[in-house]
Amino acid sequence: MGSIAASGIRNERVILRPFLKEDKSMSKPKIHIHSNYHDLCHGVAKEIASLAQHAEQRYRPFNIAFSGGSTPENIYKILSSMHFCEKINWGGFNIYFGDERMVAPDHPDSNYLMVKNSLLDHSPIPSANIHRISGELQDPHTAALQYEEELVEHLDKSESLIPIFDLVLLGIGSDGHTASLFPNTDILKQKDKWVDAVYVKKLDSWRVSITLPIINNAKNIIIIASGKTKATIIKNVLSNTNKKYPIQLLKPSDTMAWHLDQDAAEGIKA
Fold first, then answer.
1. Are 78 and 42 in contact, with CB atoms under 8 Å apart?
2. Which residue did the predictor score with more confidence, 10 or 192?
3. CB of 195 within 8 A of CB of 209?
4. N or C: which terminal CB in the chain sees fewer CB atoms within 10 Å?
5. Which residues are 61's β-sheet partners?
């Protein structure tokens, strides 16, 4: 099914194999399988720090889109620890958000608040480097437009004029959604906007999310998942060729990797 390669991260194995057999644009993403959630978080934090250092060595800023949810929270805490904090040039580290709920920045459901509590309050990152989505606005379409304008202003562009992230960090829901790209939503068809508002019927709420074109245009995509509750969807996504899940619409122009713990990866065959 694929080959297992040695990895520099302890207690981790890496599987190289096609994501979907008929989709050559997704050829051989790396699937990192960590022993547990703790090792997963440290492995991803190490990868983020390495990519940031690489950007610094090239005298370039590092632009990352953070994921919300509970899984990445500990990754952000690890990045704020002294071991990692001293390795990162925070003056060139620019934080963006993959999606946001339409709530105030101090609301418990705010992705920004989670990142603030876990990383921003404990690192020397300049406030000018933090680019949050204005979830407190009444109109989600206005919030989406404003955020798209911010991305266009601050990020480099590809030849197709799509802004370029150095890294987009993503999670995956039990329904196969990533960011706020949920099944059966119009945002999945969006080709002309880099940020859009999306109404999620099953949650009866509006969200703002970056879209597939800008995610796929990133230099690096990392998808993280932890726990047995994610095992079924991970197995289905990696084996199903019908593209029934939003995350299967990812067609990265560059590098994509999955970081899973053993529980999330229990249905994957090496």
1. yes
2. 192
3. yes
4. N
5. none
The domain ranges of the chain are 3-261
Report the candidate in 6, 7, 30, 8 with the shortest Cα–Cα distance to residue 17.
30
Q: Which of 98, 119, 108, 121 is nearest to 172 (CA)?
A: 98
Range list of H helices, the chain:
37-57, 73-79, 82-85, 111-118, 140-154, 212-216, 231-239
- The architecture CATH gives domain 3-261: 3-Layer(aba) Sandwich (3.40)
The number of helices, as runs of H, and strands, as runs of E, in the chain is: 7, 11
pTM over 0.85: yes
CA distance 227 to 265: 9
Asked whether the CA dihedral 85, 55, 147, 206 is positive or negative, the reply is: negative
Find out whether 180 and 99 touch, Cβ atoms under 8 Å: yes
Q: What is the pLDDT of residues 180-219, one digit of tens each?
A: 999 999 999 999 999 999 999 999 999 999 999 999 999 9
Torsional class of 208: left (φ above 0), alpha (ψ -120 to 50), beta (otherwise): beta
d(CA 35, CA 103): 36
